[in-house]
Amino acid sequence: MMSLNKRMLLSASLVLAIFITLTAITLDRAFRESALSAREDRLLGQLYMLIASAEVDAQGHLTLPSTLSEPRLNLPDSGLYAYITDSSGTPIWHSPSVVSTQAPFLNKLSAGDNRFEERKNPDGHSFLVQSLGVNWSVANSRHGFTFSVSENLTEFNSLINHYRRNLWGWLAGLGFLLLLAQVAALRWGLKPLRQVTQEISAIESGQQEKLLGSYPSEIKHLSDNINSLLQHEHAQQKRYRNGLADVAHSLKTPLAVVRGALSGTEKKEAFHALLEEQISRMDNIVAYQLQRAATAGASKLSAPIHIKPIAEKIIGALSKVHFDKNISTQLIISDDLTFRGDEGDLMELLGNLIENACKWCHSQIKITGVLQDKLLVITIEDDGPGIAPSQIELILQRGVRADQSVPGHGIGLAIVRDILQAYQGEIQIGRSDLGGASISLHLPASY
Question: CA angle, corner 150, sides to 147 and 154, nearest 5?
């Protein structure tokens, strides 16, 4: 595919070429029309001078001086010619500039009629012809004449061609300068994109971990998204590595217990019970670490997810599990409240907390979701026994593992804590107005 720079340069060149061509055509036509109008006015003025020089006697004979006021009319084949015809169209006079071999441009016009036209003689030469019909009143009689002045177009065409050469030359030079300016502008304008490309290459080669440049507002959003994606990917890889290390570390104790039991003298029933206990423990450890590693984390590229339908789905499923309690659930979440992240993470957060609330409540659960100071706050409350302050400190303690969690609020809250860390959020545990536990999730409303 053609590069962005070449595509923009080609587009600009085409637009510039079209613009210059249209400009040249417009200016050429305007100049020609202006020059033609000036020639018409000049020929008409020469006609008036010719008429002013003419005299008509009582018999209607028209005479003009032997030397005319316009010098070119006195020079043979000068390019400017004059003719006079009578009312019948018969030529009665021509200027000294007309040679005998030239066919006159004869017009027969009524008095007051004026005609300006371009005509060709039998030799194929083009002329501008200005004609005017007049009536001469002498001794109570009227005599009609048509005065005509023609000019060879050779000089006029030479003037037009000279103007065209200059016009196209100047416009071509201007177009070339504009094209150079466009190239420079494109290089300057696309410099941030080239910088982004160079930084991405540096990231691929391991020289840097994210985009560090300062970019214009049009590209800043792109660079921020790329950095967010890179940060998300690095965090995910770190979670995978930490998860594997934690699995290996956490499995050491139950494996050591099983190994010790194999070399001990326990009875078969006791050994089976011990083995089942340690297998269950290892299963919980693996499930917990897999969930930690699978946490997607915050990303600007995540689509917003409506919270209320997810909460309703979880409540519906858990109400069937705990149908014997006949739990009354209040769901106070607006329809347009959203969570920007992974849907699986949201279900894990709400699922663990609502399941704990269902497990420990007597008969009431309250779930609320609001936006507070650019924070998404989701609170799950129950009317159960609550959580003792000593247990709260243990649950919120950094580095608590699945096999160290408080019973009843152990692996579930540990998973919730790790998911919140991935989203740069926090958890707050306290006493609910219902009498039981109140667990609040605080998440950035946007990333």
Answer: 175
